[in-house]
Amino acid sequence: MTDPLLIAQISDLHVKRPGERAYRHVDTAAALARCVNALNAFRPRPALVAVSGDLVDTGAEEEYAHLLHLLRPLELPLAVIPGNHDARAPMRLAFPQQPYARREGAAHFLREVGPLDLVFLDSTVPGEAYGTLDDVALAWLETILAAAPQRPAILFLHHPPFVTGIAHMDRQNLRNASALAAIVARHARVRLVAAGHVHRAVVTAFAGTVATICPAPNHAVDLDLAGAREPSLMIEPPGFHLHAWFPGEGYGSLVTHFVPIGTFTGPHPFFDAAGRQL
After folding, report:
1. Nearest CA to 137 among 159, 170, 114?
2. Average pLDDT over residues 118-147
3. Reduced to 3 states, what is the DSSP secondary structure of residue 266?
4. How far apart are CA 32 and CA 37, in angstroms?
5. Contact of 21 with 50, CB cutoff 8 Å
6. Which domains are present in the chain?
7. Per the CB 3.0–4.6 Å rule, which of 26, 36, 70, 184 could disulfide with 207?
8. pTM of the predicted protein model
9. Mean of the pLDDT values across residues 92-113?
């Protein structure tokens, strides 16, 4: 079997000013440092790390400076889009090397990685927690997808284009998901729509393909499907998504793995030297 092309996705870093904790409980800087170590140590190495928004917590310039300091040890290429906690102008200044489709405003761009097209969509609405893709964004996406119909593509955005059952987060999802779905349904080369925002690993069918939500390296949103509690966070095992694309007929195949962040024992063999099960 041909080795896969690996794309790591991390999301919702929520970096604050040095010494500050998110929601008074979460040391997001330490969490990101652990995540960077895990990414650097992973083998085989991913070709790119995609960050699907909420890089920082309040959009302050000091937070972006701290974020860049924390990302400096990362040994892998990086691509980022904003989330609702970000601010576009300081984010663009922090990451000026990205091939943005526009000089200002929404920070969309295309990144080609080998045979894959990675399309990064800015779904943020300044001053709001929910997301949308305006007419300009949708037209740009249609043009990008139509330009290379033979190449498989992954779409990254912050806001999920589907409901999760967590009511307070579903009120903040992509408001015009049907407009995105109509475009995705026209382009079979879209193998995955990969979002963030909810701090949980989630998967569903979407517009003839698959949509996922990436877990976070720090805290999780409480999985309250009954709406019985106030919006809350949980300290659960952190992780990231690893998207593995295998070449093959048509657009190849794409598999997404949840990778926990931490130190674990193993690998422990299943069999001894004689081939007997241990």
Report:
1. 159
2. 98
3. coil
4. 9
5. no
6. 5-260 (3.60.21.10)
7. 184
8. 0.97
9. 97
